[in-house]
Each structure stands twice: as C-alpha cells, then as structure tokens.
Amino acid sequence: MSWSRRDVIRLGIGGFALAASGPLLSACGWKPLYGNASAGPSGNATVDANLAGIAIKEPFFERDAAPFGEFSEAGSAKYDARTAQILHNALRDGMNPYGQPAAPAYTLAIKLSESINRTLTADEGDARRENLTLRASFLLADLKGTELLKDKARSIIAYTVLQDPYTDLEARNDARDRTARQLAEQIKLRISSYFATHG
C-alpha cells in the first residue's frame, strides 16, 4: 500500500483534531456519563455506583386480555408478564450485572402498558403491518420514599401479521422483546443523566 502526500497530510490533521478535542470538550463541561470520571456534583459516587445501588421492583404490566391483542371484549388484564420480566432483567443487567444490591440506596418502580395498532392491510386482506407500542412510567425514589425522578418512556416496533397463528404470535413476542430492551436502555440513560447532574 502506498501513501500519497495528501493522505499523510489528512492523517496528520485528523490526529491533531482528535488530540485537540479532549481539552476542548472538557473546557465546555463535557464529561463521561459512566466510569470513574462520572461522579455527580457532590463527588461522592460515580453514576455506575449509584446505578448499582438501585433495587428494581417487578414492573406492573397492563395488557389487552386477548391473546392476539386486538378487538377484545374482555377489556384490560393486569398482570406480570414475560415483557415485564424481560424489561426487569435488561435493567438489572444494565445497571448492576451482579444482581439486586444487598443494601440498596434507591428503589425503581415501573408501570408498563401495551397497545397494538394496525397500520397497513394488503388488498387481499391476508397480510398487514402492526405497530406494538410499549409505554413505561417509572419512579426513582430513595429509601425514605422521596421521589427523585418521575418520568415516562415509549418504544414502538412494527411487524408483519400473516394470518398464521404461530408465526403471528412469534412476531408479536419478538416485538415485545425488542420494545422491552429499548425501554430498558431509555430508562437507564435517563436515570444516569439524573445522577450525573444531581448525584
């Protein structure tokens, strides 16, 4: 491989810009969200340490009572379900891979709701697209019950319905899995931002 003079100059400029960006970002107040340099204003603990101190309660899940989630006459069924478990485990693994803290400093409560909306139907009516929306209302509190952060998050996944019971159930379960993992990332990021500015 041969290097032209232009390539060498571009490489040199790129390296210089990369080296100069660190002090510039530091000067404007930028700092890492995670790691040893992520301590909040108090300087007592890093964001990672605060996340590891959260006891995550089992999410409360509201879901349509119909197995396929549409046109149900049974109304709304409230129960813990697989989606709630996936969200709980994804949050636990993201915040503290070693499991629930033995001596937690915070608690995290989550309420989930799911809705399914048809967005497109083929002319023959044998295939359609649906959007599965998973919403979470979450509350971070200290051990005294003081509310520290109350927020909402939402994730939407589209999938195809082929009018085949097994395939359609698999498609919806896959959508539920992906929305739960996306919500876990959103919730972790918002709580991390809170600790970075208030911790």
From TrEMBL:
Which key words are in the record? Lipoprotein
Q: What is this protein called?
A: LPS assembly lipoprotein LptE
Q: Keyword Repressor: yes or no? A: no
The record's annotation in InterPro entries points to: LPS_assembly_LptE, TAT_signal
Is the Lipid biosynthesis keyword given for this protein? Answer: no
State a single Pfam family of this protein: LptE
Gene3D superfamilies associated with the record: Lipoprotein like domain (3.30.160.150)
